[in-house]
Amino acid sequence: MRLVLWERMQHCQNSERSEKGEEQLMEKRNLVYVKYRDHVLFRNADPSQFRPSVREVVGWLLGETEDVLCLCYERAIERLPFEKPSEQGIIILKSDVLEMTELDVKETPICKIAMK
Predict the structure, then answer these.
(1) CA 44 to CA 93: how far, in whole Å?
(2) Alpha-carbon torsion 89, 34, 68, 48, what sign?
């Protein structure tokens, strides 16, 4: 199932890339703030003592399905000729999203994002 979701997002991105230049695709991606519940791994401990961790991330929305969001939080502005795609990001289950806000970088100082 995980592979099917990823393939759907890749298909969406590839069809957009063929219709538009990659630069336009990067501009189209929305910058978002997401607060979400993350899984917690425990080992040799009482499971009743643990709760999901609440985390937050700011990144570009690369794609989504009805079940997941795919965010990129680090990317190269210009790739070197020998460089492979090097985006770094996270896939979050929508059922774990507590809050999601689209950010307008021109109107949202970075310190307000960090202090949210």
Answers:
(1) 27
(2) positive
Q: Which residue has 């009482």 as its token pair?
A: 46
Strands, sheet with 53-64, edge to edge from the N-terminal-most edge strand: 88-93, 68-74, 53-64, 31-38, 97-102
Token pair, residue 91, equals 């896939």
Is the confidence at residue 47, as pLDDT, over 50? yes
Kindly report each contact of residues 69-76 with a partner whose C-beta sits within 8 Å and lies 24 or more positions away, as own/partner. 69/34, 69/94, 69/97, 69/100, 70/9, 71/32, 71/34, 72/29, 75/26
Q: Which two tokens stand for residue 81?
A: 């000729």
Kindly report, residue by residue over 84-100, the tens digit of the pLDDT.
877 899 999 999 999 99
DSSP structure class, residue 68:
E
